[in-house]
Give the backbone structure.
Amino acid sequence: MRIVLMGNGPFAVPSFDAIHASAREIACVVARPAAPSQGKEPPESPVIVWARQRGLAVHTPISINDADTVAWLSSLHADLLVVCDYGQILKPEALSATRLGGINLHGSLLPRHRGAAPVQWSVLAGDVFAGVSVIHMTPGLDAGPILTSASTRIHMGEDAGELEARLSQLGVEPTLRAIEMLERDDPPASLAQDRSYATRAPRLKKSDGELHWNYPVRWLDRQLRGLQPWPGVFTHLELPDGKSLRVIVHRATPIESVEVSKFGEVGSLLLPANGTSINLSWSDQAVAVIARDGVMALESVQPSGKRAMSGVEFMRGYARHAGVRFRVPESPQPLLESMMALSTEPERTE
């Protein structure tokens, strides 16, 4: 079988490498062109780096649906497109450029989490299980019939970056199995997705990372883990002189059901040795922030323009000021509102 590989990010590399190792003919690797980066030479995508290391031809069209690009695809006389983490929806003309159309490796258990950020939304939604699906592509967004899939339990405390690395490996076997099905002309029956169960996993943006401390700590924890490593989460420390300091939170531990309201308002700080009578089991290098129903123990933070440091190290210069606290925005946090609407609130026994 003659195959065209289409992808960009690291999620695609393990499956593409397995296809290459299977001795199938790879006609070309298609990737999106790198975006300009403030006058610097933009880095090549992981897929392009992988393809060049293996001596494969690389093509980087601006639009895969452009008429000239579709004509070029047709001229390759390939049997199948294998797509993963490509970032453009292929129109019927592009899908028709190969004999069997295209398959797509997607990082969720479809039809749940259709869209650009399925792994992140699996964490944000509080799903117990995540997985991968290989679909026979249609012009709709991740809407094609499912050929194969595989699932895994999301680990307690696992962030989106860690889960994505595991799912990229999990996707290898289903991708190869889907190719074999099409080679044998033997796809399984009744594979259409049930649209009534479809949810959206839209691309995330930097503003999604702002922490609103008046939400439950379990939601703040999902926000923190779901937005790692990008776009990350942040908050603002309100200073006595009326200014504020933007602080990135890299790592934190949620502690629910802690009666802390008598020690301060939401957004206020609690140190491990602040003389209170409550017993909180966080790291002695963390500083806790009061949320709606508990605290978030901040273990690693990074003030604007500075290096990452422990919570205690960061607060050493600020906790002595009376009333110092993190900003609590009055408006709802759009991302968390979407998370609450999407979550099925599953029970975990881990």
Summary: The chain has a mean pLDDT of 90. The longest helix spans residues 172-183. The first strand starts at residue 2 and ends at 7. The chain has two domains: 2-197, 206-342.
